Hints:
single chain; mainly beta; Jelly Rolls; 2 domains; six-stranded antiparallel sheet; 20 strands; 14% helix
Amino acid sequence: MKFGGKKLKGFTLIESIIAIGLTxxxxxxxxxxxxYISANQYLKHKSLATQLAEEELEALRNVQFAQLSxxxxxNFIEVAYNKGVSQVESLTGxxxxxxxxxxxxxxxxxxxxxxxxxxxxxxxxxxFTVTVRIKVPTGSSWETGLFLRYHxxxxxxxxxxxxxxxxxxxxxxxxxxTPLQPQPAPSISAPINNFYYLTIIADGNNFKVYYDTTxxxxxxxxxxxxxxxxxxxxxxxxFGGDSVHAYFDDVSIFTSSTTTWNxxxxxxxxxxxxxxxxxxxxxxxxxxxxxxxxYTIGSTTYTDLKTIKAKVKWNEKDKxxxxxxxxxxxxxxxxx
Length: 336
């Protein structure tokens, strides 16, 4: 711009105002975009939390009334969740085809105890034979195997191998663990850098466990019996403990029919078809609280009617968010 025949350097007032205005508009667009992303993320988390709470209430409608003992802010029950990271991987030396199923812990699953679980597709199984091939590429202080008749994280059977060349059958009931295998625990060859067959026959409250490099069912490694309120049905899950990195292949369940997963038609880097299952670990800082109480109105308490509240919590930008859903379940088979 010229003024008095001279060319002035810099911006004019109008140009400055326009530049400031454009900057403000860009800031508003950026802020609106961030707000939209945050709102969209919140809605996704809220939707998942609502689904998990509804799933818990639906599960409770299908259990015996006697199991609905009063509790406050307790763990969810009767829902078998996944945990950690599970995905298909292409592996040289896979037993059949090119792919296997890999279990590893996640940032939310911790480093000790049960760090990875992948529930086998299907429903509750009662009597069955399950076989799987397992390999651990490396590492120490790990556990891997199967959850059987898995109800929830506090109620299941666990058949597993360890890096200490031992294997176990344990029952977890109400969070309390009881060994069912012979004492001391039998020795085995840990499946390090070699695939081993693990087969369990579950028949009522009796279990037969087979373990070898070949699918030999001639003589079990050992048998176990649960004579104390046994679980007679439940889900089956692949299990990894203490941060193990484990491969599974040729998962087969034999009942009146046979179902097998060898993962060779699945895409590496993805969850196997039909194995996707959302749980609390899919929410940032996800946690659940179950509260069951006798229905009370005024000064009258009805022990044959339960008030049930399922609450799911998660963290959203360092703030706790939650969804809570309530229902009533009657001893006489009615629910609202």
